[in-house]
Amino acid sequence: MSQEVPTKQMAQVIEKTGGPVEFKEIDVAKPGPDEILINVKYSGVCHTDLHAVNGDWPLPTKLPLVGGHEGAGVVVAKGELVEDWELGDHAGIKWINGTCLACDFCQQSDEPLCAKALLSGYTVDGSFQQYAIAKAAHAARIPKDVPLDAIAPVLCAGITVYKGLKESGARPGQYVAIVGAGGGLGSLACQYAKAMGLRVIGIDTGDEKKSMVTEKLGAEAFVDFASSQNVVKDVQSATPDGLGPHAVILVAVNEKPFQQAAEVS
Ligand SMILES: [Zn+2]
Ligand SMILES: [Zn+2]
Question: How far apart are the CA of 108 and the centre of ligand 2, in A?
Fold first, then answer.
């Protein structure tokens, strides 16, 4: 351990499912042989963090739990087996804190499906503390010229939609419809899609979201799901010959868009 790492720190801690979340002093964990310790400078907050507090999912969290899986900071200590991180490097804590790296899923870049995955802020302590542990093989490498506050939300919201766009198989020049385009995930999806050369049809509601999605985030068309008489038809009409988009990215939380997605493309 390096000298400047304290033994105590402040953290947001859940002692029991259902809360409350308490801001209190806890020990700073020591990194295991294959782990790094990150001094968290910024953390995003994800809706999953609320599910963890409330115990909404069948998979139980560890308790007591420090939540958070969008943490960006500086490496301040590392285990003796870690050779490819230096103290002072910038690193990110993602939802997937570590996996076995040996199963079929891990070997095919499907680490989120690994049965032994460690989940930050869920099955292991996450980024709502000053010093957080990450598996060295899985921590995100952040270039030093990239602002850490801007990177924090990319570590979950950004990765989620980037992976969705990548897995969709849509190629540059093709159309992608993004449902919930003006929200937290959707606004990132629009920007990635544009950067990937995709042509975006944003679906959301209201003038404010319309102007953001089309003027700031680069969508070519906007369909207002609240005022549209037929969302499926309007989305299809925004593409050449009305054939519909090549892919649909769904970041809405209700069911209807999932049914419509199968109809438009
Ligand atoms: Zn998340
Ligand atoms: Zn695995």
Answer: 10
Q: Ligand 2 centroid vs 109 CA: distance in angstroms?
A: 10
Separation of 158 CA from ligand 1 center, angstroms? 9
Distance 77 CA to ligand 1 centre (A): 25
Q: What are phi and psi of 40, to 5 degrees?
A: -75, 125
Among 155, 174, 209, residue at a domain's last position: 155
For residue range 175-200, list pLDDT tens digits in order: 999 999 999 999 999 999 999 999 99
Q: Does residue 1 fall inside a structural domain?
A: no
- Per-residue pLDDT of 89-120, as tens digits, reads 999 999 999 999 999 999 999 999 999 999 99
What is the CATH classification number for the domain harbouring 199?
3.40.50.720
Ligand closest in space to the Cα of 159: 1
254: in domain: yes
Calculate how far, in angstroms, residue 232's C-alpha sits from the geometric centre of ligand 2.
39
Alpha helices in the chain (DSSP H): 47-54, 104-107, 148-151, 157-168, 184-195, 207-211, 231-237, 256-264
Q: Domain of 205? A: 160-264
Residue (of 258, 252, 264, 237) closest to 204 by Cα position = 252
| Assigned domain for 191 exists | yes
